[in-house]
Amino acid sequence: MQLQQLGTPLTLLLLFGFFGITFLISLSIGKKRENADNYMNAGNRVGFGVSAASMTATWIWAASLYASATSGYTYGVSGPIHYGLWGALMILFIYPFGKRIRSLAPEAHTLAEILHARHGRSSQLILAGSNVVGSVISLTSNFIAGGALIAMLSPLSFSTGILIIAAGILLYTLWSGLRASILTDFIQVCGMLGAVIVIVPAIFFSAGGPSLFEAGATNLTPDQQSFFSSEAFFNQGAPYIAAVLAYAIGNQTIAQRLFAVREDMIKPTFITATVGYGATVIGVGMLGVIALYMGVEPFGGDVNNLVPQLAATYLGVGMLCVFFLMIIGSLASTADSDLSALSSIVMTDVYGRNLAGDDASPKLMLLIGRLTMIVATAVALYFASSQFNILELLVLVGAIWGALVFPVIASFYWNRVTNTAFTISVLAALAVFFPVRFGMIELTGGVALLSDTIASIGVGVIAGLMAFGFFGIRIGWIVGVLALVAVLPFAVGFLHVYPVLTASLLAYAVSAILCVALSANSSNRFDFATIRKLTSKFVDEQARA
Questions:
Q1: Which segments cross the bilayer (predicted)?
Q2: Residue 207 · residue 314 · CB < 8 Å
Q3: Which residues pair with 46 in a beta bridge?
Q4: Which of 72, 140, 223, 474 is at 20 to 30 A from 20, Cα to Cα?
């Protein structure tokens, strides 16, 4: 079937109309004399509705929609469920730890800033550096998704598409930072949710409806037809379970919304976003399952093209315009969050708390933040031209953050954790993760048995931390030990077959073991009350000075 296209004039009209409106919205909230703290955390007083919509929109990004469809196309009916369910739980697990973080530092700007107050410079820069890498990869992924969409649905090239999208997002985010991102998120998520409700059923019924599952069953393997696919679980679900806490604790785009929302609204905000994200992403991911049943070959052999390919095949011009704006809105809502996160990291963790110290100038911070957005956009455009696989990028980022999870959480609760323990445990975990993840170490013989054993400890660490967040330290220890005992007999001799999962679990285990071992006998007793004093607003600090 021939692909439907929008044509160059209509495509440009939709793009310029979308970004023009968002720019006008950002101008309406901007000030000629912008406040550096508001630029980063919106004054710490955003209400429930806007915060929940912003969190939902930030994580319903084009890359996650495409990656969920890729998961469905690769692993069958259980693929989108594994992708969307664990991604939704990632948002849910923020709130118990988020309440603790906000109680310690109610006016903080970044998580790394809190680590600077808790430990010092090395721990701060490790977390800040990982977030710079993660946000640049996320920004790159969204540009790739947008470029693939425009190249598929119009005569415009991939390169032209990413340039227009990058310029449009930068234009409206540059002016008011996080406030622009949050307000436009609210409008974008309303449009996205409405579009998903209409578009996914429209493609499904145009492709054949329920009869498709019977006619196309021969295109699937038995494993792809099963809701309990072991391939889907070990290659997709389990690595994402490992990444749940990593994204929740390590990601600055989430932390910014945690610091922006009113403190009494943290729980309802993140529960609402959990439901909205899970339903939407699983729904769009089913388009990949539909493509699998139909025996569709991705255009150009690139799985990133699956979602726009189905839309261009089965939707008329009107619905295709709605689909186009849905994807543009989803990628813009996350890309502007990445730009805001990157600007906050450089403003706070590079300049404000390190280079300037007590003499930080809020006016100069604003200039630095805006220059950071421009540079980040240029770097992401450069990487986007390589057109990486989005799903692989997302798994990689989550796994890298896995090395940080235990040391970061422990630092917010346990007063014995030292800067040395934090730094060594994270670096050692990364030193183990990368060789295993990229096959530099052959997992055979005794090495495989050792890696399986340590990775099993990683399972216990993840389960224990999840239980600890909701039920406290005693239940956390019990659940962690039980998970380790239950998994160990099955994992040894088997787990190393899945190197992506093994590498993530090793990162958790190594960082936890070393952090506990190096902190247990420490004479350090940190006073958590000092964090509040060291993470106050920059404008107030300047006024006091």
A1: 6-25, 46-69, 81-98, 125-150, 156-174, 186-207, 227-249, 270-294, 314-335, 364-384, 390-414, 421-441, 447-468, 475-495, 501-520
A2: yes
A3: 261
A4: 140
How much is the mean pLDDT over the chain? 83
* Rounded CA separation 417/424 (Å): 12
Q: Kindly write down the DSSP assignment for every residue of 290-342, as one continuous string.
A: HHHHHTPPPGGG-GGGHHHHHHHHH--HHHHHHHHHHHHHHHHHHHHHHHHHH
Q: Which residue has the tokens 């540079």?
A: 375
SS3 content of the chain, % helix, strand, coil (to 5): 85, 0, 15
Q: What is the 3-state secondary structure (H, E, C) of 216-254?
A: CHHHCCHHHHCCCCHHHHHHHHHHHHHHHHHHHHHCHHH
118: β partners: none
Nearest to 191 by CA among 324, 316, 29, 284: 324
Q: State phi, psi for 472 to the nearest 5 degrees.
A: 100, 175
Task: Look up residue 2 and give its DSSP letter.
Answer: P
What letters, b where the CB count within 10 A reaches 16 and e where it falls short, cover 233-264?
Answer: bbbbbbbbbbbbbbbbbbbbbbbbbbbbbeee
Do you know the residue count of the chain? Answer: 545
What is d(CA 420, CA 430) in angstroms, rounded to the nearest whole number?
Answer: 16
Residue 46 backbone phi and psi in degrees, to 5? -75, 135
d(CA 221, CA 459): 29
Q: How far apart are CA 315 and CA 198, in angstroms?
A: 11
CA-closest candidate to residue 66, choices 292, 283, 296, 306: 306
How far apart, in whole angstroms, are the C-alpha atoms of residue 118 and residue 453?
32
Distances in whole angstroms, Cα of residue 66 to Cα of each of 69, 86, 149, 258: 5, 16, 10, 26
Each residue's pLDDT tens digit, 264-312: 888 888 888 888 888 888 888 888 888 888 888 887 777 777 888 888 8
Handedness of CA 451, 492, 243, 468 (dihedral sign): negative
CA distance 352 to 425: 26
Query: pTM for the full model?
Result: 0.83
